[in-house]
Amino acid sequence: MRWIREPLVHFLLLGALLFAAYAALQPDAAPEPDARRIELSAGDLHQLEIAFAASWRRTPSPDEMVALVQARIREEVLYREALALGLDKGDTIVKRRLAQKMEFVAEDVSAASEPTRDELQAWFAQNAQRFAVSPRVSFRHLYFSPDRRGAHTRDDAAAAQKQLAGSPEDAPAAAQRGDTFMFQRAFADQSADQVAKHFGPGFAQALFALPPGSWQGPIESGYGWHVVFVDASSPGRVPAYEEVEPQVKAAWKEEQRAEAAKKAYDEMRAKYVVMLPAPENASAEADSTVARAKP
Question: FRET pair for 181, CA 20 to 30 Å: which of 5, 9, 100, 166?
């Protein structure tokens, strides 16, 4: 009877009793009858046809359709087996994809609504500056290269401007002035940003201050000096609603999608308590990050 007093025997008996009690209180759940069934509907097959036609610009042949169905079944089998093995757990790519799909679901809620004309006009009145048209200018120029003219570059440009003062933009004398330039000599309907991209912000600022209709300058750019003729200029303005109605509607919908996504996330976020590491032994930068991340 010595074995009855052994602690190991007591442990095994207690474990057997606990297992028996759990089995009695928690009977096996009935197996799900459809857990091993893969069902493709007529809609699923139609989607396969559509995807094939989008890629190949024709409908699939019978053999190709069989191959598509087999590929779809293979994908579903592998997907279910991967879930059974828990391969989705801790996978960063899977997490990101599921999070992205949740964002799409939230955005689709707002996409279902269509704004009325009154709603759009009221929204445009509050956001009109978002659709403002920037000032534009059309001009031509004569370029004077420091590489060719050295210290006399600005003086040569100023002399050319004096000689051309009062001449039209297409005067024969203008064609004989200046040096070869890497870009074109005439630019049409340019914004300040476009001009600055080619010539620099200083040149753009000086150019937009010039009156149209005469040779002006010289103006310095990153390349050298220029004598400029402004053909036409138009000030910036806020367009009427009718001019930009399609853009207004698109911007309104985008704002609604963003607001719906934020609202949906805030509601989901409120369900969770986030625990972050204590900042005692962390760096100052980490402390700041933890503080900003806490709800």
Answer: 166
